Predict the structure.
Amino acid sequence: MICDNLSSHNGVLYFNGRNTLSLAQEFGTPLYVMDEDRIRANCRTYRVAMKESFGENSLPLYAGKACSFTALIRIIKEEGLGLDVVSCGEIATAVKAGFPMENAYFHSNNKTDGDIAYAMDRGVGYFVADNKEEVDAVDRIAGGRGIKQKILLRLTPGIDPHTYAAVATGKVDSKFGSAIETGQAAQITEFALSRAHVELAGFHCHVGSQVFDSDVFLRASDIMLEFIAEMRDRFGYTAPMLDLGGGYGVRYVDSDPVLDIPANIAQVSKSVKEKCQSLSLPLPAIRMEPGRSIVADAGLTLYTAGTVKKITGYKNYVSVDGGMTDNPRFALYGSAYTVLNAGKLNEKTDLECSVVGRCCESGDILQEKVKLPASTCRGDVIAVCTTGAYNYSMASNYNRIPRPAVVMLSDGGKTASVAVRRETPEDVLSLDV
Ligand code: LLP
């Protein structure tokens, strides 16, 4: 099995100890299922590893863009992580979950004045300012309120993280951040230091997502620390905080490597400490922003198969009752997933097929070249594994398809509760006037 919270009993797929066929029957399909125990375990892995490697002053921030709903953010709060938020919707979710907003970090490459005011009204602790205009806007809006707002500056260290293009963000020509190489980063630092209503708390970078190459974090932290030393020498400013972003990869298919996150964090910490020593810098308070590696393997999507189309001599299709509306990642990035017939795990998988959705679009594909049992037919439950990250959060109402429910499995699967209820056609209509 691709994740150890999946198991097989008498040919039936179990997730965190629960029979997936029974879950599909009880809650309907398509259905996102999430494993609370795994989310908590992943949070603890980061908490412990960062504390051991970087000390009490460090903190992992969960990147809510990977998946955000109230019950999930409540878990993040209970586990003591900080939170990376990118929109008013994510901020509202955090507020509803009772999240301590002083530990929230507001990202995005283009915060409107309205966004900035909304976040300040809710006490967001840190604004991660992407560019000079944003520093200026935060300073102006904070000034209007007579407050001083803590900010980090997002910088692009100029690194290619060797992942797929849509999620590579650390290169100089990225839409995100201010580049160190072009001198813009230094200019914006000087500018931020001159503003009366912002407090420059440090620097941030995020080089990419689904990254397995540990060298990427070592090179990024080196460049960032050299920049911190340069700013000290030029402006007498020593950044107290360094946020290294998120990006650790997860296993979607058997051929993906296994990443030892604590070992990787220990390696980054060793390199950061050595670099600090060589530059005579104190160790900054380190932040990391994992999203995918907190929730991906805590998620599974269940579908019901409909049409099974065999075009002899060409191709086979198994259509399911969801698709790119609940998981657009294959359509967008060609992402690999492990797909199983949840009730027929004991059967030989000799039907090669494309598992496709129900949208009126040929690109509505969940996965190609999937091996399923030849007996796969209408009514079978199809499971797509490792869907906890960037599935629910990227879901849409294309074709006015209502979005699936999210069910949370807790306490070793003893309880299964609806965390987000299933949308109805009436929900889809609810904003029409
Ligand atoms: N911090 C920042 C500033 C980010 O932009 C991201 C992800 C993260 C943290 C979290 O990265 P993670 O640990 O999840 O890799 N929709 C794409 C992924 C986009 C990632 C965007 N930024 C996908 O489905 O693969």
About this structure: The pocket of LLP is lined by residues 63, 65-66, 84, 107, 167, 169, 206, 209-210, 245-248, 289-293, 329, 390 (CB under 6 Å). The chain is about 30% helix and 25% strand. Residues 32 and 301 are 5 Å apart (CA to CA). The chain has a mean pLDDT of 96.
